[in-house]
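[agent] plan:
  1. take the single chain provided in the ticket
  2. run structure prediction with default settings
  3. attach structure tokens to the ticket
  4. add a short note for the reviewer (M.T.)
[agent] executing step 1
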Amino acid sequence: MTGAAKRLLLEVLGWLLLLAGIAAIVLPGPGLLLIAAGLAVLSQQYTWAERLLDPVLLRALRAAAEGVETWPRIIASTIGGLALGAFGALWIVGPDAPSWWPVADKWWLFGGPWTGVTLVISCLIALGLLVYSYRRFHGKPEARAALEGRIHEADDEAEEQRERMRHRTEERRRKDEE
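[agent] step 2 finished; step 3 output follows
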């Protein structure tokens, strides 16, 4: 594969992952994880993506830590993940539309079996992330404190970088006015 083809392939993959992550924020799926993956791929070519990668990844880890803080959250997350899998199985099996279905049959379980496959994959990812989060953060306040410290450091670094950019912009504006 040539360098240009590899670059194009990575760029397309990065943007697809980023868009899928944004969609998964509101749809079933690991939104922040997909956004982080997209930024990781795009960071190979873009400095803006590299700057955003750590903050997004740290926020994803914070969400993972918060998701396993209490047993009700763990149970709710597990039920949600299993529900995704159950809906996926329903889509894969694809039963006929029930008699009470108020619209055209073509809108019953739209998307077909591939929608079911993506829901089952989302279920497996969600349950895998839940296990990972539980093992890394549940009952470990020191791990959560270390994560919060890293988030604070990243926020400070980002603020310093924004301040440097503002300063450079003001200097350029002053030079242009002279």
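[agent] step 4 note for reviewer: Helices lie at 3-26, 31-42, 47-67, 71-93, 112-137, 141-177.
[agent] ticket updated
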